[in-house]
Amino acid sequence: MSDVTASQGIGRGGAPVAGDTDRVRIRALAQQFESMLLAQMLEGMKQAMTPDAESQGLGGQIMGDTISAELALALGRAGGLGLSELVGTALARLDAVGGGRRAPEVPSGDPLPDHIAPPVAPSLASAATALPAPEGRPSTVTSDFGWRVDPLNGRHRFHAGQDLRAAYGEEVRSATEGTVTFAGEKSGYGLVLVVSHGSGLETRYAHLSSVNVPEGARVRAGDLIARSGSSGRVTAPHLHFEVRQHGQPVDPGTVAGLVPAVGSPPGGAD
User: Fold this and answer.
1) 238: Cβ contacts below 8 Å, ≥ 6 apart
2) How far is CA 110 from the centre of its chain?
3) Is the pTM of the predicted complex or chain greater than 0.85?
4) DSSP assigned state of 99
5) Residue 3's pLDDT is what?
6) Given CB 3.0 to 4.6 Å as the disulfide criterion, which of 15, 37, 211, 233 pairs with 188?
């Protein structure tokens, strides 16, 4: 076998050797896994952006799931998040090291490719730094922002906020100053109150039992605005707390200057 044939992993008669076959299989498995991951991400995005989708009927749900699966498969074949490419690169580096050849060096400071970089909200930093920064007793998070198993149906679903431990009727307070833009019922949320803080930033307080302030009211950080409850899509009383930037959900834990939304006000008095 010539050096060229050996370096290409081709056996006699032009057939691929076992090593190449294994690499092809690994790449295919990586692509399939990537398609499954993309399908879960698309489903979570759909649930987060359209919380009313569950009321569209059986046919609509099946059609939506089918479209998500086909789109995920197409994205995976087109490169997706780059997982199969990364697997291939890693295998090539292992081959280079195992064959006595020096693997190409990648500067440690190089950023991740743009297509696999985590999503960010560029305008959030400026909006968050403009918020006042009073301190208060931290609320207990019982279910954090991000992917989780839905407690009602057992399916993986994106959680667009934080669930905070709160007994029925406990005080709910504005996380920072702003203007109440909505107070009423929303599918899934139950009784919900929305406060706008400017620059596209808003906070949402859901599953309430009552609301203490009307739409258009101006509130300060720590003001009593509502009472916790179990309205909407819940299994037990708690407060669902969201932060959104231009309509997109943001991890509340990454936003500085917010006071606890449940419990006593900063300083211990209204």
Assistant:
1) 142, 163, 164, 165, 166, 207, 228, 230
2) 25
3) no
4) T
5) 42
6) 233
DSSP letter assigned to residue 129: H
Which range, of 66-70, 108-112, 203-207, 231-235, averages the lowest pLDDT? 108-112
Domain boundaries, the chain: 3-98, 125-268
Cβ(192)–Cβ(199) under 8 Å? no
Query: Averaging pLDDT over each range in 43-47, 105-109, 132-136, 258-262, which range is the top one?
Result: 258-262
**CA nearest neighbour of 241 among 221, 261, 224:** 261
Q: Which one-letter amino acid corresponds to residue 79?
A: G
Pick the CATH number of 125-268 from 2.70.70.10, 2.40.37.10, 3.30.70.560, 2.60.40.10: 2.70.70.10
Question: How high is the pLDDT of residue 113?
Answer: 37
- The pLDDT, as a whole number, for residue 191 is 97
Instruction: Calculate helix-pair angle for 18-49, 58-77, nearest 10 degrees.
Output: 140
Q: How many CB atoms lie within 10 A of CB 5?
A: 13
What number of helices (H) and strands (E) belong to the chain? 5, 12
- Return d(Cα 215, Cα 180) in angstroms, integer: 5
